[in-house]
Amino acid sequence: MRRPPCTRVPSLAFPAFAIAAITMTAACGSMEGDPNIAQESWGSSVAGAWRLPAAVRAVGDRQHTVYDEAPLWNGGANCSGMLFPGTRALGDFLVRQFSQISSYGGYSCRQNTGDLSRTSVHGTGRAIDIMIPMDHGDADNTAGDEIANWLVMHAEEIGVQYIIWDRTSWGAYRSVPKDQPYGGPNPHIDHIHAELTIEGSRERTPWFRDRDGDGIASDHDNCPDTANRGQEDTDGDGVGNACDNCARDRNHDQADRDGDRIGDACDNCVHESNRAQDDGDGDGVGNACDNCPAVASESQSDLDGDGRGNVCDPDMDGDGVPNDGDNCPRVPNPTQADTDRDGVGDRCANDDDGDGVLDERDNCPRDANADQVDLDHDSAGDVCDRDDDADTIADTSDNCPRNANREQADRDGDGQGDVCDPMPDAAPTMPGTPDDDGDPHADGSDAGVAGDPSRASDAGTARDTGPAADSAVTTAGDSGGRATGGDGSTRSSGIVQPGGCSARPARGAGAPWGLVACAMCAVAASRARRRRSR
Fold first, then answer.
1. Which of 496, 494, 498, 497 is nearest to 506 (CA)?
2. Can you list the alpha helix ranges (DSSP code H) found in 413-510?
3. What percent of the chain has pLDDT over 70?
4. What is the rounded CA–CA span in Å between residue 242 and residue 212?
5. Coil, strand or helix: which one is 168?
C-alpha cells in the first residue's frame, strides 16, 4: 500500500515474536546519506505483497551467499546472549540512511517458530527486525520496499542470507527465482526481517571493510557510510563534510534532538523539526519555533508565557492593560497602583515612597523614612512597624512603645510603663495639683522652682548656678536679705528669716546642714535685737 507524504511517527514496541534488544528512533522522511544508494533505481512499489521491481530482481539474481543455519535449541544453551557487531552495525546504518524506520530490534533467545527443535536466528545474534509503521493496518510498501530492495542488491557484499517482508521471502542462497511467497505464522507487514551469515555478523565481509565503497576502510573513514574519498572535514570535528550534520560547526557527537538531520550545533530550531531552516525575520531563530516570526527577537523573551514574544505581544506582562497604557508594562499590575504618583507603577518603581531609598533596600517601601530606623531590627522600619519594640503590644496600646515590656507593668499608675518611667515608684500628686517636676510634692509645697532646670527639688541648689544653698552661712546683723556663701559671695536666699536672716531649707543629703544654717541665723537675729534694745 502507498501512504501520503511522510509524517513523523513514534517508536513502536516489538511484537512478542521479536523482543527488542535495541530500540532506536529515527526521523520520518526518505532515504538519504550515501550517494551511491540515492543513485540506484528502485522501481515502483505496488499494492499487496512485496514484489521486486525488474531492476532490483536483475541485481538480486546475481547475489549469492551460503545459508548458516541456527543451532539446535537445546534449552537455549546455544543462544549468543547479544547481537554480534556486524548485525548491530547494519541496523545502525539502516536507521541513519532510511529515516522512515521507526526502530530496529534484534536479539531474542527463543525457539524457531517454524521448527521448535532449533534456536531462532534471533537467538544467535545474527538477525534484526527493522520496524516499519503500518499504513491503515497493512504494510506500507512505499516505506518498506526500498529498504528491502536495497538489502537484496547488497546482499553478497554485506552477507545478508535471508529477508522476509510483507508476505514475501528472499534468499541469497537460493537459485533463481530467489523470492517466494512467505507462509509463516507472521506476515511481516510491520517489520523487515534480515538475517546475516556468520561472516557478515562478525564484520568479515567486504561491505564492513569499506561500507561506502569509496576506497577508504570503514574503520579509518570519517564518513564510513557515505562515500567521500577526499575526507574533507571543514570544522575539524572528526566527521567528514559528506556526513556531518553541521559541516561548519564542531559537533563530534552529531546530536540532533528534533531528528531533522540538522545538528543541534547549527539548528535554528533545536526542538522543532525544520529541515529547510527558514528564518523570515533573520533573527537566528527558525520560523518553526520563533515566537515572533515576523519581528526579530533573538532572545525570544516571553514574560507572560503566552507563546507570543514580548516584541510582538500587545500586552507583554499579561495583566490586561495594553503596553502603551501600562505604568509597568513588564510587570503584571492590573490595579496600576502608583503610591507616589510619579507615573511609574508601584510594582516596578524603584522608590515608591520617594524617600531616596530604593524599594529593594527600603525597610518601609511605601512610607517615607530616609533614616531607615528599625528599633527591633525586624527589617520593618519603625514608621511602618505596628510594634516598634517587638513586645507583641501594638504601639497604639503600648505604655512604652519603644521599650519591650510585654507585661505592661506600671507601679505608680501614671500611664507610663516602668521600663520607660524615670520614677516608676513615685506617688502620684493630688488630683488637680500642679507638679511640674514630677516628684511627689505639689508645686505649692515644693522647695524647687517650677520651670528652672537648675533647681531640682531635692538638689537644694540656689537660683543661680553657684554653690548649693545648704552650704551658705548667713552674716549676723545683715538685714538686707543677703546670705554669704561658702565661697565668700552673696546671693539672694529663697526664704527670709525674721531679723533679715536668709537661708534656704533643703531636702536630700544636704537637708540637716540647711536646718543648722537656719538655726544659726535665728540666734544671730535674736542677739542683734537685744543689742539694739539696750
1. 494
2. none
3. 70
4. 12
5. strand
Do residues 390 and 376 make contact, with C-beta atoms less than 8 angstroms apart? Answer: yes
Give the chain's count of helices (H) and strands (E). 8, 10
**Looking at 159-163, 269-273, 382-386, which range is the least confident one?**
382-386
Q: In 3-state terms, the chain is what percent helix, strand and coil (to 5)?
A: 20, 10, 70
Least confident of 58-67, 89-98, 486-495: 486-495
Q: Specify the DSSP element, H or E, that contains 147.
A: helix 141-153
Q: At 16, is the pLDDT very low, low, confident or very high (cuts 50, 70, 90)?
A: very low
Per the CB < 8 A criterion, the answer to whether 1 and 139 are in contact is: yes
User: What is the C-alpha end-to-end distance of the chain, expressed in Å?
Assistant: 160
Percent of the chain with pLDDT over 90: 56
Question: What does the alpha-carbon distance between residue 209 and residue 231 come to, in Å, rounded to a whole number?
Answer: 16
Q: For the chain, which residues make up each domain, given as ranges?
A: 35-209, 235-273, 460-533
Q: Environment class of residue 100 by beta-carbon count within 10 Å: exposed (0-12), middle (13-18) or buried (19+)?
A: buried
Model confidence pTM above 0.70: no
Query: Looking at per-residue confidence, does 200 or 99 come out higher?
Result: 200
Residue whose entry in the numeric block shows the C-alpha cell 535471508: 162
**218 — phi, psi (to 5°)?**
-55, -40
By the 10 Å C-beta count (0-12 exposed, 13-18 middle, 19+ buried), 49 is classed as middle
Beta bridge partners of 492: 482
**CA 236 to each of CA 53, 174, 252, 266: distance values in angstroms, whole numbers, following the listed order:** 42, 47, 9, 15
**In 3D, which of 236, 203, 230, 205 has the Cα closest to residue 216?**
230
